[in-house]
Amino acid sequence: MNGVTISFDKTRTYINLTLNPSEFSKEIDIRQVKTELATGETKRLYVSDAALKSACDTANHYFKTGDNTVVQERVGERRNAEIEFRIPEDAMTANLVITSPYGGKSPTINTIKSLALKNNIHRGLGSRVIEAMLVEARKSPPGTIIERTVAKGLPARNGRSSRFIPLVPNALERILKPQTNEGERVDMRNLGEVICVKVDTPVLRRTEPTLGRSGFDVRGSKLPPIPGEWVEFRKGTGTVQADNDQNLLMSSIAGMPKYQDQTMNIDDTYICNGVNVGTGHVNYEGAVLVNGDVTEKMQIKAEGDVTINGFVESAHIESGGDIIITEGAMGKVNDSAGEFNCHLIAKGSIHVQHGQGIEIHCSGNITVGRQLAYSKLHCGGAVIVGQIDKPMGNLFACDIVSQDRIEAGTLGAVSGSMLKVDFSPGFAQLLERKDALDELVRQLRENNSKHKEKIDILKSKKVPKELKTKVAEALEMFNNENALLDWIESKVLEISDAKVQYQQDIKLIANKKLYPGVTAKLNNRNWRSEREYERAHIHYDSHQWHYEPII
Questions:
Q1: Closest Cα partner for 34 from 44, 47, 23, 45?
Q2: Contact in structure between 378 and 360 (CB atoms under 8 Å)
Q3: What is the sign of the dihedral through the CA atoms of 60, 62, 66 and 68?
Q4: CATH of region 163-211+230-266
Q5: Rounded average pLDDT over 365-373
Q6: Where does the record place the Flagellar Assembly Protein A N-terminal region domain (predicted)?
Q7: Which CB contacts under 8 angstroms, 24+ apart, belong to 48-51?
């Protein structure tokens, strides 16, 4: 370009631009100058757009006015890489920021480590990350900003409080994990040792709290941990602390162990070889263990768990805990009234190996070993037919009300007998609670808003000494009201989350086959199987039931 000269200073650090208007044939175009600067030795150097524009504008002005004054301007320079460390307030990390050089020098890893020490970074510095950043900076265009975390502190690990380790299993846990015979075959009849424990049997171990582990930040400051705390035994019935070990809980009576909510109870156990007309009905305040069958029209009522190592036929069994039937349960149905004469009612969960013609009510889960048919079920949990880890049993011709998944190998039957599953009652309870809480929150918010106006007026007034006590009481009541409102609003959020979770939990899972005649219901949303499906998953999402094959 005529009249344009690009040169370096003596140190070859700065770019000088000389513009001679007397040699111009026309006004100089700044884009042409930029193109020239982007080639040759100046292509990786820093160029100031402001300085370049100022020089070109001045020279063009001289050209138009006939002034031959030569314009000289320093428009660029060679810049080394820029290094910066950024450390947050907690000093648990340190970020390195590298601005790639404009034709200048890049730092070495030793230089960066020295700068880190000057920035009070003494621990947790990673050399590999820094080396990778330097390689990236050399390959990147000039002026590229690269930021990475190069140093990390170690957070203190707080100590763990005492934990409780049951030394004896609950009866339901044992029945769901049958023992293994030789050859690794599972024997559903082999339930291990007898469920009852003798007096002075260790039943619960408390572990000592740990001190935790110290940590550090990148500045090298030590971060002390919070040690764990001793958690006191929540002694249940029939237990006592060991004399020679304060971390061991012993049984003080012979009975059936039950560990729940960090509390170990030993229920005084009634043991018999069967319940029939010879023994009469059983009504017991503790647990009941029947090593035999329960015959027709017999009753068992117990405050604790009921475990029956036998068969139940057309009987009434009621438990304040779990009901466990290691064989089957069977009853008859009065076709005219639709009533069942075999009832299982429990506040906990219920397990039966196989069943037909029974009515079940429980607050927990219903687990079935092999098959359940022609029955009526009402539970607060899931219904699982088959082994817990892979349910492959059969479930058909039942009327079920549940609040969790229904899972089996086969749902329904070839004959098309109806299998009805209704998830509505549990969801309706959640909606009722949510509506009640929403109304309560609305009323509290209205009252709180009115009280706030009154409090604001009080605060703006000069209160006489004799009324200051009453004003303080009013402020305290207002603060308590705010705390109550916050607590109830948190409960509203919890129940909203529970509503979403409920819809995610309810589903039908057939691990082998799903036959026609299977229905699922949630309020007014229904799904019905009109054909035979291979392994199927029926779930509820976006106010609709959906079918998906299990792959």
A1: 47
A2: yes
A3: negative
A4: 2.40.50.100
A5: 94
A6: 83-261
A7: 48/75, 48/76, 51/75, 51/76
Indicate if the pLDDT at residue 430 is higher than 50.
yes
Residue 495, φ and ψ in degrees, nearest 5: -75, -30
Question: CA-to-CA distance for 3 and 428, rounded, in angstroms?
Answer: 87
For residue 8, what is the enclosing H or E element? Answer: strand 4-8
Helix 109-118 × helix 127-139 angle, to 10°: 120
Q: What is the C-alpha to C-alpha distance for residues 537 and 551, in angstroms, rounded to an integer?
A: 10
Residue 178: pLDDT over 90:
no
Average pLDDT score over residue span 48-77? 90
According to the model, what pLDDT value does residue 44 have? 87
Residue 63 has pLDDT above 70, yes or no: yes
* pLDDT 10s digits, 335-349: 656 688 899 999 999
Residue 502 and residue 427: Cα distance in Å, rounded? 7
Which residues, listed in sequence order, are joined to residue 408 by a DSSP beta bridge? Answer: 510
- Angle CA(147)–CA(150)–CA(151) in degrees, nearest 5? 140
Dihedral, 458, 464, 469, 472 alpha carbons, nearest 10:
20
153: nearest Cα among 220, 86, 85: 220
End-to-end CA distance of the chain: 71
Mean pLDDT, rounded, of the chain: 89
Task: Select the highest-mean-pLDDT range: 172-176, 189-193, 448-452.
Answer: 448-452
CA atoms within 13 A on the CB side of 215: 18
Judge whether residue 87 has pLDDT over 80.
yes
In the prediction, which pLDDT does 43 show?
Answer: 86
Q: What pLDDT sits at residue 460?
A: 84
Residues in Cβ contact with 233 at an 8 Å cutoff, skipping those fewer than 6 apart: 164, 204, 206, 241, 249
